[in-house]
């Protein structure tokens, strides 16, 4: 037993549990194909879904607590999600994010399998993602063999570094041949970003079928929609 | 507090509330991506959804009352939908409409992103839209920067003016790179037009994939179906 | 009041009502876009859905009784479906059918708008439709103007006559630029045929996208699947 | 009445019943288009769904018991699924499988009608299927005429033999012009494989539309994902 504030841990487990349960409800996850984690940077803990547990059997207390290095410290006897080290890598590199979501949602996976960025074709996209959603390069044989889940995190981080992307303005990515990861301030927001990513992936697919050589929306419209919702001059929503 | 007939305002708020709630139920809206307003031209008021409020939290009394210039006059402490000035512009230009609906429904957005009118390929379309559903031109940088929501209304209106379209016979439009707006006599009818627009957008997409160089339906069939349902010789439905 | 066996009429109305209600439940009908009728050839009556009545308001007693010429004889004050004369024409030409269904289901409409027969690409199709589902020619201007609904029936019938199709072996059709009609022994079976038609229309669309110049299934496989379910040597299902 | 352990038979019937009921719930089966069986190799019995019985009428005791040659031995008066001999053939050839599922799920059928293997384009696929899901050759006229259902099993088995595929590593197949069969240790697992097969068929379709000349995932990634979940070094899920 560790000396953590137990009440706070229960809160975190509840947040992670509810966000995980929201995924199949939103049609983003089938079977056990998804996971959500949150981080409490003060406590130095991450709480994440256990690996491969059916959603209809899962309970709040099954959420696994790990330290920032990915070592489980409170487990209820369960193994954490096998993607835990991808999550820890993202938390380390992106200091302002509070939650990470991974799914195999259909449309985002389809783009990942096509190894293509998702272009910003409209305002639905621009409201949440400031420009295209990047698709990482493929992992190499040695990356996959050595430390697969951590390297998955690394390839995401290096995609953001190399392209000079701000993870707050682009709160998601698709990993080549694999699928989407999204993040946010809270688990709820990270789940919303997963939902939006899948929706814009779907719309972008149809738009491309309807018109060839489609170009991305102009930067002034991208700016308008993104900053209507984000930053100090935002005026969408309630104060 | 203003001296409006309170009972009538409650009726209007209820109408707007119910129409807003119908949108996610019909699969036309995810998260907070939609808004409905109604106008009472005698009272000189518009009632519209508040901005960015979750559907499962929204109450009848949260509907915001504004005057025809878009100035909120009864708000329950809430900001009106950020698209309010698009709605007021439409009400001003189209004197016979009583309600406006905006969504980011998938199929209509996909055509908007492809920057294409939706052709009238069949009777499902012709039953409601007398000819193609127009896609506006793109807004310019200065239009977006200056007064974005009002200019969105203006580009819709000028599309109808330039193409000599009757907003009663074509009760909807798609705004380039953005998405659909529809209207009707009542909020319920405007919502139905949103649903129909998305459905015919879907069907038209599939038809184009099935047959290249498809032509629109002949005008005699368009006329037959439209006037079977509309105007003094209509014989569809009950008296 | 006419001297019909009232108990039998109530049975027929119930059959028609339930079949109509099954359409939106199966996702085949939105709003009021569909209708089912049944015929009792001994009594000389057709019972059909009223025109344009919302499904959630519709009651058993609203089903309209008409004679074989399409003249309403018991109406509960309601107008019958505007497509009634299409139904009467089909009943007259196809003496072995007991029920007719019309919908604007998405995939069947998409093929109708593409003005293409739906090829028999697999056993799902062959289990119910003995060969391609025909798409009629387009109606002419004078046919549409003169007696539109009856001519819609006529063009279906002439499609079957000209192509020497057996309406029992091909229990459905798509009308060019319009949508599907199906039929069966009972209302329930006719509704099932609508569902199957839409499903095979969907599958055929995807198959064509996956492989160009796809050919229909060989006749020995078509025969096997069709006759496994139909005729005196059928062995699918229970006796 | 036969001298089988009745309690064990009831267990098997319950397993088959529940797995059958899971198919329409998962959207994999419409009407009566599917069947599940399990085998008890010690008892020498197969339990399978009755033929053409509506899901909402079906009861546990309607599940038909047959011997390994496909001869019904406890039937509750019902005929077994017409596909029984396909199931027996698979059980005979694949000694480690405990359950078989057949559906006409949309996406898998679409690939079967296109007569194409489903390529392994991503990790969603690789988590369950170790490489492409094979599509059989078409059956010949004489195979269809002589002993159709058994020959369907035979063409599946010869596909696995000729391509040197391990039925445990590739727990499913699509039969040309027909549809998918999957298998597993238990009925529940075989149903999951049906669901996964349809999902990866859907994703692969979209990916191909998004990028031409797409190649399968590299073997090191295929190996990683497959063996993360299967075999003695698996680390996905709970022990």
Automatic annotation (TrEMBL), chains A, B, C, D:
Do you know which Pfam families this protein is assigned to?
A: Aldolase_II (PF00596)
The terms describing its cellular component in GO are:
cytosol
Q: What is its EC number?
A: 5.1.3.4
Boundaries of every Class II aldolase/adducin N-terminal domain copy: 14-205
InterPro entries linked to this entry = Aldolase_class_II_sugar_metab, Aldolase_II/adducin_N, Aldolase_II/adducin_N_sf
Q: Please write the reaction equations for the catalytic activity of this protein.
A: L-ribulose 5-phosphate = D-xylulose 5-phosphate
Q: Which pathway does it take part in?
A: Carbohydrate degradation; L-arabinose degradation via L-ribulose; D-xylulose 5-phosphate from L-arabinose (bacterial route): step 3/3
UniProt entry keywords in alphabetical sequence:
Arabinose catabolism, Carbohydrate metabolism, Isomerase, Metal-binding, Zinc
Query: A single Gene Ontology molecular function, please?
Result: metal ion binding
Q: Which family does it belong to?
A: Belongs to the aldolase class II family. AraD/FucA subfamily.
The free-text function statement in the UniProt record for this protein reads:
Involved in the degradation of L-arabinose. Catalyzes the interconversion of L-ribulose 5-phosphate (LRu5P) and D-xylulose 5-phosphate (D-Xu5P) via a retroaldol/aldol mechanism (carbon-carbon bond cleavage analogous to a class II aldolase reaction).
- Protein name stated in the entry: L-ribulose-5-phosphate 4-epimerase
User: Which organism is this protein's natural source?
Assistant: Listeria rocourtiae
| Classification lineage | Bacteria, Bacillati, Bacillota, Bacilli, Bacillales
